[in-house]
Amino acid sequence: MLFGKEHVKRYVETDGEEGHDWRGTTVAILTTTGRKSGEKRSTPLIYQPYGDAYLLVASQGGAPDHPLWYKNLSADPEVELQIKGDRFKARARTATPEERPDMWRTMTATWPDYDVYTTKTTREIPVVVIERV
């Protein structure tokens, strides 16, 4: 299955029966509001629960710039997250420098390539905290 629009479509249509479990990890659908277009944008992203919150990583495979979804939630932190059949409104924020080390370990435990991505870029790859509202 592709990791993109088709992934989002199948995930939403099947309440995550297709697409939640992906390559040995778990995927949620994050919906942000385009900072320029104002349109809703849905992106499949690896996630992990963390206490009452959920974590995402704005890695873009180690690209030199942040992914568009991260730029969008930085401009408007009101987002929606879907985990399987559970769709909910949430607020997104970047992990603080104090929180980040433990959160990073949580995410690299589920997707070790995040550590590899850090070697491909000079930017600090953000860990995003998603909290229900």
From TrEMBL:
<comment type="similarity">
    <text>Belongs to the F420H(2)-dependent quinone reductase family.</text>
</comment>
<dbReference type="GO" id="GO:0070967">
    <property type="term" value="F:coenzyme F420 binding"/>
</dbReference>
<protein>
    <submittedName>
        <fullName>Nitroreductase</fullName>
    </submittedName>
</protein>
<dbReference type="GO" id="GO:0016491">
    <property type="term" value="F:oxidoreductase activity"/>
</dbReference>
<dbReference type="InterPro" id="IPR012349">
    <property type="entry name" value="Split_barrel_FMN-bd"/>
</dbReference>
<dbReference type="InterPro" id="IPR004378">
    <property type="entry name" value="F420H2_quin_Rdtase"/>
</dbReference>
<dbReference type="GO" id="GO:0005886">
    <property type="term" value="C:plasma membrane"/>
</dbReference>
<dbReference type="Pfam" id="PF04075">
    <property type="entry name" value="F420H2_quin_red"/>
</dbReference>
